Amino acid sequence: MGAQHRWTAADVPDQTGRTAVVTGANSGIGFHTARTLALHGAHVVLAVRDMERGAFAAARIRAAVPAARLTLQRLDLASLTSVRDAAKELRDRFDRVDLLVNNAGVMWTDEGRTADGHETQFAVNHLGHFALTGLLLDALRAAPGARVVTISSYLHRLGRIAPDGPDSPRRYSRFRAYNQSKLANLMFALELHRRLGDTGADTLSVAAHPGLADTGLGRHIPSALRRIGPLFAPLFLQPAERGMLPGLRAATDPAVRGGEYYGPLGLTETKGHPGLVHTARRARDPESARRLWAASERATGTVYSF
Questions:
Q1: Tens-digit pLDDT profile for residues 85-128
Q2: What is the 3-state secondary structure (H, E, C) of 159-171?
Q3: pLDDT digit string (tens) for 247-271?
Q4: 97 φ/ψ angles, rounded to the nearest 5 degrees
Q5: 172 labelled catalytic
Q6: For the chain, which end, N or C, has fewer CB atoms within 10 Å of the first or last residue's CB respectively?
Q7: Which residues on adjacent β-strands are paired with residue 70?
Q8: Given 3.20.20.140, 3.10.20.580, 3.40.109.10, 3.40.50.720, which CATH number is that of 14-300?
């Protein structure tokens, strides 16, 4: 594939025989990812918080892809009990998982804590996926060439992991909390790649970000920003179906290597065709990554068995 090739969903190879778990598959980027994987033959698990909305999404996919093989799985990433239950049900149902797309997330929410006591954005975006991946690790390693794709954001560059921990008491900022969670997503993907490599596993850990996509993720945007948003949207915003392409490429392109990061190649990485993009230096700091990993294991009670 030439360096100038503009990768699209038409480049997805046959996915027949693969089991793919997509979190947040009922809407936005997750929905389009699930539909495209199903179109190319994968058995897709729609891991969703709201089963009614998940069933509606499954019906939409079947209307477009009558032969789609779909499974609904309840998963509330804000609840570690739900994550553990979902992982057990998936392990009982499937001998192996070929692809896990850690896509679901929340953005710019009001200050809040989950039932487990963790800041909401960090818990949903990072801790829930950290636990889910660890609990499915054996199922992933049972599939030759399996992949874990974790969706981050170009805003990870603005993120900082608080030295005294992400759940430390401090003045809340919805923007700072989101950026921190997205930096954690990327650091997790890169550290998982390193740890898998140390064991000789052929499971790939890859990261991606959608740029600025038109999805329901922005429903918590403050009203002042919502009023001016339409003035700038045409310049930077792309449809969710385009926003899914970096993650879809990370999940399916045979040329992808572990530890890579995909995003839109346009100006400021907000839109454009998917390709390799750069990570912030702090995302690649091994000592920070080890601290985050240890803190995540403590917070979730999930210890990876490499």
A1: 999 999 999 999 999 999 999 999 999 999 999 999 999 999 99
A2: CCCCCCCCCCCCC
A3: 999 999 999 999 999 999 998 899 9
A4: -125, 120
A5: no
A6: N
A7: 44
A8: 3.40.50.720
